[in-house]
Specification:
145 residues, 2 domains, three-stranded antiparallel beta sheet, elongated
Length: 145
């Protein structure tokens, strides 16, 4: 594809570009925009997962799967929670606000996937309960000497 065709495609998709962008740069911008659109629609590709891992500098992400009433798997992806998210979630958990804790984690660690996991009644509640399991602790012991 020539540079003008790539620029036209960028204009159609609302992608900003400069006159200095070469074909490879324009192609990359188009690729990233298409990936972003697919992510919003719930279509997550292995390429998108690799991009998230690279951007977040992590080896693993959390895959959240909930089955709907018909047995269809609804999938979303969560990043590992940071210290602030863990602190707030644990505060909620200690107050027996298990659902709210999971909702907080799910919503603040959400990367992409099927939006019903965040908005659709029983599906969203189930996703929240599962998301609360993200926070893991190592075995430890506190004692006096």
């Amino acid at each position: 594809m020539d540079r003008q065709a790539l620029r036209d495609q960028c204009k159609e998709m609302g992608i900003p570009f400069t006159s200095k962008d070469n074909n490879a740069q324009l192609t990359e911008k188009i690729r990233k925009m298409k990936m972003s659109i697919e992510t919003k629609e719930g279509h997550i590709t292995p390429e998108q997962i690799t991009e998230w891992k690279k951007k977040l500098k992590v080896d693993k992400l959390h895959k959240l799967t909930v089955k709907d009433k018909d047995g269809n798997a609804l999938v979303g992806y969560l990043k590992p929670p940071g210290r602030e998210i863990k602190a707030t979630a644990l505060s909620m958990y200690s107050q027996n606000k298990i659902l709210e804790c999971g909702e907080f984690i799910r919503d603040n660690c959400w990367l992409g996937g099927d939006e019903r996991l965040k908005m659709d009644g029983d599906i969203a509640d189930t996703a929240a309960i599962q998301a609360s399991g993200i926070i893991k602790f190592l075995e430890a012991e506190l004692g006096e000497v």
